[in-house]
Amino acid sequence: MEDLLAARGSMIFLAANVVLSLFAFQNRDFLNWGILHTGAVFRGQEWHRVLTAGFLHADPMHLLFNMVTLFFFGPTVEGIIGSQNFFIVYLAALLGGNLFALFRHRNDINYSALGASGAISGILFSFCLFTPFSMIIVFVVPVPAILYAILFILYSIYGMGANNDNIGHDAHLSGAIIGVLTTILLVPASLQYFLSQISRFLG
């Protein structure tokens, strides 16, 4: 319990996602006001959507999956890098992921997206910097964090090229990369620590 109370950044973002998403489920006008939409951003100059879309979700399962991931990985990352840095990493991954998605779909005025996945990807990849060989449960299968990160990147690149589903692969990938880079910028020792663990593993 003390660890969760200390992880105030994780809990604040979790609560914000839950409250705003639940409200949006009941209020379509609020949802339409907040989602990422290229036409509204570029033609209407509604840049607030780059931020607000990261706190809205398509349905309860979408919300649950992201919040469970944040609940399990957020406090660990926050405990290592501190709450202030955690806030910066989370928001940098959220904003960066959405901005990259806007750039990729700038010629499609009907493109829309929502969800905290870009920010969550940033936190998850930050986690991999500090514990690359800890086990992550993926569809009931335990996978080393570093292997999951590699598979995640490959799948995201494939998904961006195939463009045959409703998953925001571009926001996921850019959020993950920005999360790692921001963590390294804020905590330079994290990169050396990561490399030392890789070196130790390789013998």
Keywords:
about 200 residues; mainly alpha; Rhomboid-like fold; two-stranded antiparallel sheet; 4 strands; globular
What features would you describe in this structure?
The mean pLDDT is 89. The strands form two sheets. Strands 1-2 form a two-stranded antiparallel ribbon. It has a two-stranded antiparallel sheet with strand order 3-4. Helices cover 73% and strands 6% of the residues. It is mostly helical. Strand 3 and strand 4 (141-144) form a beta hairpin. It is built from eleven helices and four strands; from the N terminus they run H-H-H-E-H-H-H-H-E-H-E-E-H-H-H. The radius of gyration is 17 Å and the shape is globular. Helix 2 (8-26) runs antiparallel to helix 6 (60-81), helix 7 (83-104) packs across helix 8 and helix 9 (145-162) crosses helix 10. It has one domain (2-202): Rhomboid-like fold, CATH 1.20.1540.10.
Strand content: 5-15%
Q: In CATH, what is the class?
A: Mainly Alpha
Query: What is the end-to-end distance?
Result: 38 Å
The CATH level-2 architecture is identified as Up-down Bundle
How many distinct domains? 1
Principal-axis shape equals globular
Rg to the nearest angstrom? 17 Å
Beta-strand segment tally = 4
SSE succession: HHHEHHHHEHEEHHH
Helical segment count? 11
The residue-averaged pLDDT reads 89
| CATH H-level homologous superfamily name | Rhomboid-like
Lateral arrangement of strands in the main beta sheet: 1-2
